[in-house]
Design goal:
There is one protein chain. By secondary structure, the chain is mainly alpha-helical. Helix content is 46%, strand content 11%. It has helices spanning 32-50, 60-73, 80-87, 91-103, 125-141; strands at 78-79, 107-112, 115-123. The chain has a three-stranded antiparallel beta sheet. Strand 2 (107-112) and strand 3 form a beta hairpin. Helix 1 (32-50) crosses helix 2 (60-73) and helix 2 crosses helix 4. The longest helix has 19 residues, at 32-50. The chain is globular.
Length: 154
Amino acid sequence: MAEADNSAYRLRDRPMVPPKPAAGGVAFTGTAADLVEGIYRARRLRDDAFGPIAGQFREPTWDILLDLYLAAAKGRPVSVSSACIGSGAPQTTAIRHLALLESAGLVVRTPNPMDNRAGIVTLTEEAIRRVDDWARRVRSVWKAETPLPGDPVV
C-alpha cells in the first residue's frame, strides 16, 4: 500500500504548472490546484443551476478525489466525515466510494492522532500524480476566451 505521509510532496510547495497557450484563447495560468479548485466549484454551480435533477449528475468518487487533492494542496488533513461531505453524496454512499478509492490505491485511511474515533484520509503519491497529469491535459484544451451564449459581444 502507498505511503500515507505526503509531507515530502506537498502540492503547495510545488512549482506552478507552466501555462501552455491554447489555440484561439488564453491558457490557464495558475497552479494545478487552482484549476482543480475551479472545476470543483463549477461542479457545485452545476448543482445550483439544475436544482433537484442535479443529484443524478453526481460522481462521488471523483468529487472526493478532487476535494482531497485541494486539501493536500493547502496542507489540510481531511477526516473521513469531511471527505464524505466533500463528495456531495449521502454518507453511506460516500463511504462506499472512499472504499473504492482505497482499494484502487488512491487514498489511505489512518487513525486521527487527535481523536481515535475518527480517521484521516490522505491521497497517495500516485493519486496526486494522476490528478496533476489530468489537470495538465485539461489545461491543454482549455480555451478561456471562447465566447459562450449570452456573453457580451466585444
